[in-house]
Specification:
Length: 276
C-alpha cells in the first residue's frame, strides 16, 4: 500500500496525506447516512455539548455511554444563553460518536476493507483494533475548534500505538477549519492523559512541554476523499469554522493489540476488531 518514501515520510513527519483514498460515491453515501442519523436523533436532557477546551463542561455520563453507541453531540454555539437551540437541528450537531463503525451498517462498511487493513499494517499496527469513530460536522459559522492535543491522550497504551485515520468527507480548507499539525512533533512526549475514575473523567498533566508556537504548525487543506493518517503523539488542532461551508470529516482511532490498553482509558468496550 505505502511506498518506502511514504513510510519514511510518516516516520519523519508523523503524518501522511493520501488523496482520493475513497471514491465520490462512498463519500456521498456516508454524508447522507450522517444526515439521516441526525434527522432521526431526538435531543434530550442527557445530550452532551462537546468541547475539548473544558472537558468539565462535557456531560461525562453522555460521553461514557456513547462508547458503544451512536450518539449526537451538540455544538456549544448552537444554544443561546438561555439554553435554547438557535439553529436548526441539522446545523446544530458537532459530532456523532463513538461506535459508528460497529453500530451502523453504512459506517461499518466504510470503516473496514482490505485497503485500510493494508494501510494499518504498513503503518506498524500489527494487530489493529478500531477503538472509536467520530463523524465531525464542523458546521458553517458555528463549527467549534479543537485545541492543540495528541490523540494518545485519549487512548493510552504501552507503548503508544494509537493511530488516527482522518477522512475528509468534504473539502477542508483554511476558512472552514482544516487540520493543522506540527510536522515531527510525534517525537515529543505525551503531555496529557484523559483518565476515567468511576463515572468521572479528568485530564492529568504528564509533561509540561509547551504546545507548538505559531510558525511550527502547518495546515493540511485537502479535497474530499483524502485520508490523513497520523501518529498518536502528533500535536494537531483545527480552527473554528466561521465560513458558510460545512467541513465534514470522519475519524477512526486504532490501537495495536500488542500494546496493553490502559484500564483508566475513558473508552472501555468489548468486542473491538480490526479493519478486515
Ligand atoms: Fe485529535
Amino acid at each position: 500500500m505505502l511506498t518506502p518514501t511514504q513510510r519514511q515520510q510518516y516516520d519523519r513527519d508523523g503524518f501522511l496525506v493520501l488523496p482520493a483514498f475513497r471514491g465520490v460515491a462512498a463519500l456521498a453515501e456516508l454524508r447522507a447516512r450522517a444526515e439521516a442519523l441526525v434527522q432521526a436523533f431526538e435531543p434530550d436532557a442527557a445530550s452532551g455539548v462537546f468541547s475539548t477546551r473544558n472537558p468539565a463542561v462535557t456531560a461525562d455520563a453522555a460521553l461514557i455511554a456513547s462508547a458503544d453507541a451512536v450518539h449526537c453531540f451538540f455544538e456549544e454555539e448552537a444554544f443561546d444563553a438561555a439554553g435554547r437551540l438557535v439553529v436548526p437541528k441539522d446545523r446544530a450537531i458537532n459530532k456523532i460518536g463513538h461506535a459508528l463503525h460497529d453500530r451502523d451498517p453504512v459506517f461499518e462498511r466504510f470503516s473496514h476493507g482490505a485497503d485500510l487493513a493494508a494501510l494499518a499494517r504498513d503503518l506498524g499496527l500489527a494487530e489493529p483494533q478500531v477503538r472509536q469513530t467520530i463523524l465531525i460536522f464542523k458546521q458553517p459559522a458555528i463549527g467549534g475548534d479543537a485545541r492543540w492535543h495528541q490523540d494518545a491522550t485519549f487512548f493510552v497504551t504501552e507503548p503508544v500505538s494509537v493511530t488516527t485515520f482522518w477522512f475528509a468527507l468534504e473539502d477542508a480548507a483554511l476558512d472552514n477549519g482544516c487540520l493543522w499539525v506540527e510536522p515531527g512533533g510525534h517525537r515529543g512526549p505525551l503531555r496529557e492523559r484523559f483518565v476515567r475514575e468511576g463515572d468521572a473523567l479528568r485530564i492529568e498533566v504528564l509533561d509540561r512541554t509547551p504546545w507548538p508556537g505559531e510558525g511550527a504548525a502547518v495546515p493540511l487543506p485537502c479535497a474530499a476523499g483524502t485520508l490523513v493518517v497520523f501518529h498518536g503523539l502528533l500535536p494537531h488542532y483545527s480552527a473554528p469554522n466561521r465560513s458558510a461551508r460545512r467541513r465534514m470529516a470522519y475519524t477512526l482511532h486504532a490501537t495495536d493489540a500488542r500494546a496493553p490498553y490502559a484500564p483508566t482509558n475513558w473508552l472501555q468496550r468489548e468486542g473491538v476488531r480490526g479493519f478486515a
